[in-house]
Amino acid sequence: MSVIAWFRQLTSKSSALGHNEAKVMSMKPHQALCCAVLLLTAAVAQSYGPKDGFVPDSMTAVKIAEAVLTPVYGKEKIESERPFKAKLENGVWTVNGTLHCSDGKGGVTTSCVGGTAEVKLSKTDGRILRMIHYK
Fold first, then answer.
1. Residues 36-51, buried b or exposed e (16+ Cβ, 10 A)?
2. Do 37 and 7 touch, CB atoms closer than 8 A?
3. pLDDT at residue 7, as a whole number
4. Could you tell me where the DSSP H helices lie in the chain?
5. 131 bridge partner residues
6. Which comes out higher in pLDDT, residue 72 or 101?
7. How far apart are CA 111 and CA 99, in angstroms?
8. How far apart are CA 47 and CA 114, in angstroms?
9. What's the rounded Cα separation, in Å, for the pair 116 and 131?
10. What does each C-alpha distance from 114 to 44, 67, 71, 76, 108 come to in angstroms?
11. Are 119 and 97 in contact (CB under 8 A)?
12. Disulfide check for 36: which of 3, 8, 59, 83 has CB 3.0–4.6 Å away?
């Protein structure tokens, strides 16, 4: 049944009722019309999407990755894995941390065994597709 047919059916029922009942029923067509307008507006509305996606570059990808990693793994742990590097492949950003280890001579090296955080996120809409911390 269309909205117009439903609206007509409601208004025809209210005319057959008594004076007080008609006042109560007369609000229903108004409510139905408001609901129809709201539903049509929602159906026609379109979401905004930037042409380069919500995550257009590696700097944005790294900021998002750090923002979602920090509450899970802790600020100190995530900051220790800087700098983060982001690589775009097939519309998905992969952001990885850098592992820092002692070189045994009082310095630090990145050539060591261990794991870092990794986040995969959608370039188009910014969804977090995967988040893991390797060991």
1. eeeeeeeeeeeeeeee
2. no
3. 57
4. 3-15, 19-44, 58-73, 75-79
5. 119
6. 72
7. 8
8. 42
9. 11
10. 51, 22, 21, 17, 14
11. no
12. 3
Alpha-carbon span 13 to 128, nearest angstrom: 53
Residue with tokens 């900051």: 79
Residue identified by tokens 């509305």 is: 45
Match 């977090």 to its residue by tokens.
128
Residue-wise pLDDT for 82-95, tens only, equals 999 999 999 999 99
Tokens matching residue 118: 């990794």
Q: Which of 8-17, 46-55, 109-118 has the lowest mean pLDDT?
A: 8-17
Structure tokens at 134: 């390797």
Identify the residue whose tokens are 């802790």.
74
| Tens digits of residue pLDDT in 22-71 | 454 455 677 777 667 767 666 666 677 889 999 999 999 999 999 999 99
* Residue from 113, 116, 112 nearest 98 by CA: 116
Question: What are the tokens at 76?
Answer: 């100190």
**Collapsed DSSP state (helix, strand, coil) of residue 75:** helix
